[in-house]
Amino acid sequence: MDTDRIKGAAKEIKGSVKEAVGKVTGNRTTEAEGKVEKATGTVQRNFGEAKDKARDALDKK
């Protein structure tokens, strides 16, 4: 498993929590930061998954 998958998933979780805290407290800045962090984590996780698939495809040759 690629480290980007793990780090991306962690960023997604952290971003979700930050977004929720921002919503609950009414802090739009924190909420927006959480959304950005969650989106960044999703991209990083997807990149890690793509690297894993490419590695698996090369190993099957």
Automatic annotation (TrEMBL):
UniProt feature, compositional bias: Basic and acidic residues: 48-61
InterPro entries linked to this entry: CsbD, UPF0337_stress_rsp, YjbJ_sf
Family matches, as Pfam families: CsbD (PF05532)
Disordered: annotated segments: 26-61
Domain spans labelled CsbD-like: 4-56
SUPFAM superfamilies, per the entry: Hypothetical protein YjbJ
Signal peptide region: none
Family the UniProt entry places it in: Belongs to the UPF0337 (CsbD) family.
Protein name: CsbD family protein
